[in-house]
Amino acid sequence: MTQKRTSADALLEAxxxxxxxxxxxxxxxxxxxxxxxxxxxxxxxxxTEGINRIEVQxxxxxxxxxxxxxxxxxxxxxxxxxxxxxxxxxxxxxxEREWQE
Length: 101
Known about the structure:
The chain is mainly α. It contains 2 helices and no strands. Helices cover 88% and strands 0% of the residues. The longest helix is centred in the middle third of the chain and has 77 residues, at 24-100. The relative contact order is 0.04.
C-alpha cells in the first residue's frame, strides 16, 4: 500500500533539504561571496576611519580659523582705537596752530 503524500510531508522534505550539505560549487560560491563581503567590510571600515580622521582635522582647522578670526577682530579693534587717537592728535595740532596764529 502506498501512503498518500500530504502538504506536511512536502514541507518536512523541503526543510530537511535546506540543511543538507551544499554541493561543492555552492560551497565555493559561498566561500567567495563571504571573502568578498569581508573585503568590502574591511574597505568600509577603512573609509570610516579615514572620514573620522578628516572630521577631526576639520574640527582642528575650524578651531584655528575661529582663533584667527578673534585675533583679527582684536587687531581691527586696536587699529580703530589708534586711528581715533591719531584723529584726536591731528585736531589738537590744528587747534594749536590756530592758537599760535
